[in-house]
Design a protein that fits this description.
FAD/NAD-bd_sf, binds flavin-adenine dinucleotide, 12 helices, about 425 residues, FAD/NAD(P)-binding domain
Length: about 425
């Protein structure tokens, strides 16, 4: 396990004050027991508690400890896999329905921010930037695909137009989206937790589930308590480990790292990203960055399939950032942290039923800020008897990742392959 997943983040330093939720003690009953207090679990909790169900959420650490409190905060469109892989499995019409679900996931996020008055610095605008010249055709195809799906709030920017927006000559054009953006991920997560508890859900932090029973009388056990429920929802994503043997190998934890510089001041920050949009490159191993409201550069990337951490995380991340923005050579790095992304083989999220009483969703493959909330909602809908959208998404088939001693070397080799591909293509 890497240290950086516990390292204090910029988000924790700027978190909305929130209550501590007590650990589970003793045996209790609920309609639904949810394991994991990230976007997936808390989204399900909000829906179910508002519908009058007795909901208990168990979290091994604290709310937002996982990817939901530590991510890049980039609100993305569609699926990490792209549409073709989904269409290859489900057909064009159903793939189109999946895209509509992904679009709805952004709307759901915005609705919740409004409805629960979650203060989380939401901002629109997103640039997908080309790290290599001569690839504009790829961006045009991407735009055409989205146009055909009815998502038209996009523009192609050539190199000159992009250089007006970004203070770097590192990139060679971009696809700009108006319907994607960024926010403070932890404050959104804490806001969801507040909404869930106000609707009647009970959250228990420092309460790792150690046994999950998915029989007709399901239960979840912790070291000091037990929740007997009618339904169980597994929402642990990359942090699940071997808790549920059927799910081990379905997703792979990949570490991604982020740094935040010291505040740069308004002028210096605007000279880097003029309009404050989120930025991500089009490589397989993505660099992503954006400004914070207090004018820091928040720079992420360096995904690793092994859980071995870079020896000097902050300087290595800073070196990647300075390659793009040499003007940040002197900027101090105030925070450096990491978190686990859950990827699937085909980069399409994986969801389904372990039994008639147990649901799971995970594997958003680096693009779960909006999607995880939707998958959580769809599990809640399924518990309540409306499973059409959940069943559609759960029709996607997934290959397992290898287990045992070959796992890490094989995945490290895969990562080297993708780095080489990014460098050469
Ligand atoms: C560094 C980083 C950057 C990212 N950037 C982006 C981005 O910019 N845009 C984007 O769309 N996506 C991004 N992602 C991915 C996104 O954050 C995730 O897809 C999303 O947060 C998943 O939410 P979740 O609720 O499913 O999982 P998580 O937020 O990981 O929550 C799972 C929770 O389960 C808990 N848990 C695990 N085991 C147990 C147990 N036994 N008992 C109780 N609780 C347990 C964990 O402690 C954790 O809190 C990023 C991820 C990382 C790590």
């Amino acid at each position: 396990m890497t240290k950086s997943i516990f390292a204090p983040s910029y988000y924790q330093a700027t978190a909305t004050p929130s209550p501590a939720y007590p650990p589970l003690a003793g045996e209790i009953s609920a309609d639904v027991c949810i394991v994991g207090a990230g976007y997936t679990g808390l989204s399900a909790a909000v829906e179910l508690a508002e519908a009058g169900h007795r909901v208990v959420v168990l979290e091994s650490e604290t709310v937002g400890h996982g990817a939901s409190g530590r991510n890049g905060g980039q609100i993305c469109t569609g699926f990490s896999s792209g549409q073709d892989k989904i269409a290859a499995q489900l057909g064009r019409d159903d793939a189109r329905k999946c895209f509509a679900i992904a679009e709805d996931s952004k709307r759901l996020l915005v609705d919740r921010i409004d409805r629960y008055k979650i203060d989380c610095d939401l901002r629109w605008g997103y640039l997908h930037v080309l790290p290599k010249p001569g690839r504009m055709d790829g961006l045009r195809e991407w735009k055409d695909e989205w146009d055909a799906l009815g998502y038209t709030d996009t523009q192609i920017l050539d190199t000159a137009a992009l250089e007006e927006k970004l203070g770097t000559r590192h990139y060679h054009g971009a696809l700009r989206e108006g319907g994607a953006g960024h926010f403070h991920p932890l404050n959104y997560c804490l806001g969801l937790a507040r909404a869930a508890t106000e609707a009647g859900a009970a959250i228990h932090e420092h309460s790792p589930a150690i046994e999950v029973d998915t029989s007709s009388k399901p239960f979840v056990r912790t070291a000091h308590g037990k929740v007997n429920a009618r339904f169980v929802i597994i929402a642990c994503n990359a942090y699940l480990g071997r808790l549920v043997p059927q799910l081990y190998g379905k997703v792979l934890p990949v570490t991604s790292y982020i740094i935040a510089t010291e505040p740069l001041g308004e002028n210096r920050a605007r000279a880097l990203i003029r309009d404050g949009e989120a930025v991500a490159d089009t490589n397989f191993i993505v660099d992503y960055f954006r400004l914070t409201p207090d004018t820091r550069m928040l720079f992420g990337g360096k995904a690793s399939y092994t859980t071995r951490e870079p020896a000097h995380l902050a300087p290595e991340m800073k070196a990647s950032m300075v390659k793009i923005f040499p003007q940040l050579r002197d900027a101090k790095v105030d925070f450096a942290w990491g978190g686990y992304i859950a990827i699937t083989h085909n980069r399409i999220p994986d969801c389904g039923r372990l039994s008639p009483t147990a649901y799971y969703a995970h594997g958003y493959s680096g693009q779960g800020v909006a999607l995880a909330g939707m998958y959580g909602k769809l599990m809640a809908d399924a518990v309540r008897g409306t499973a059409e959208r959940f069943d559609l998404l759960s029709r996607v088939r997934h290959l397992p990742f290898p287990g045992g001693p070959v796992r890490v070397p094989l995945l490290a080799a895969a990562m080297m392959y993708y780095r080489l591909k990014d460098a050469l293509s």
